[in-house]
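We now fix the convention by which a protein and its fold are recorded. The integers have meaning only within a learned vocabulary of local backbone shapes. The record below shows the convention in full.
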Amino acid sequence: MSTCRICRGPVYQFFDFGQQPISDAFRKPEDTSEEFFFHMAIGVCQQCTMVQLMSEVPREKMFHEEYAYHSSTSARMQEHFAGTALRLLETECRDVADPLVVELGCNDGIMLRTVAERGVRHLGVDPSANVAEVAASKGVRVRVAFFEESVAKEIRASEGPAQVIYAANTVCHIPYLDSIFRGVDALLSPTGVFVFEDPYLGDIVERASFDQIYDEHFYLFSATSVQAAARQFGFDLVDVERLPTHGGEIRYTIGRPEHRRPTERVAELIAEERERGIDTLATLEQWGTEVKRNCGDLVTLLRKLKDEGATVYAYGATAKSATVTNYAGIGPDLVAGVFDSTPGKQHRLTPGAHLPVRPLEEFTTPYPDYLLLFAWNHAEEIIKREQAFREQGGKWILYVPDVHLL
């Protein structure tokens, strides 16, 4: 048992993934230095229902000048974030004089680029200098830093209050959520909103998508746990929206209760979570049983294909694939390598499992017999793009919500 980072209640462990590496630490083949591993177990708070990792990885080991993930590599995500930016400008900034939009974890500027193009004041805050440099090259104003209370106060002093503070796939990364909320309190205007979208616990439970849990994802949010956290810091959860991105997410809108009233969607989703029992220890332990079965089925299939002499590669050197390969014990003996479009990952080895990462340009005939799709959350976009692979007899291997072939 541990103590909740949010409410100090008791946290009970429900699954143990064993030793895991930094999920975006792609190593050069000649690098023989000792690789960092940490013990990754996950638990649920019995008081506020927040699902969280049992131990914290130092943030400097995950987010730095060589951070490998670039949001703009997906056409689908470019469309998503452009639409998000336009919507926020229309609904939250239209009637505000000279509004300021601040994004936490702006990455390569995929969302703020649209804000900048509309001439709206903005600022991205991201600790990874390499992706921040890309954002700046697109006309986005960026501050290289970890967002926390002290940084928020400095921004308020120089820029004034923010009408919108936005984050995508970022807030769940941050163990020190208390400092985030205090920073939001310091920076946000009285009528402003804090909007963030992250993987949804309900979808992770329903689909057994265990690879959504890795070093960067310290929290797995539900509407119930986000409401409890917001209220602890003087805010309230005022809206929720289901999103199809990344295998199922929720967009949470946080506001000051004296200026914002919750929509009916909030009460409806919390009631649904209560009925499903998604955050109960019994449900989460049953989820763990399904995860073990899926991993066993995947390894059994890969060994069978190896014995039959089939060639098997993977597609998408994602951060979450580190959980799959290291927990299930999938190495180069079962999967020959991974095709990926990110230059910073190519010609390197995946964390822990050391699968060679090959440029996507090398994914040509002769195609492998099978492709293990690590980037399953972009399955529709990828499979459509790689039609030639299937036309020549190739088959995709997926493991969410169970192991199956396409």
Summary: The longest strand covers residues 10-21. The CA atoms of residues 49 and 280 lie 8 Å apart. The chain has a mean pLDDT of 94.
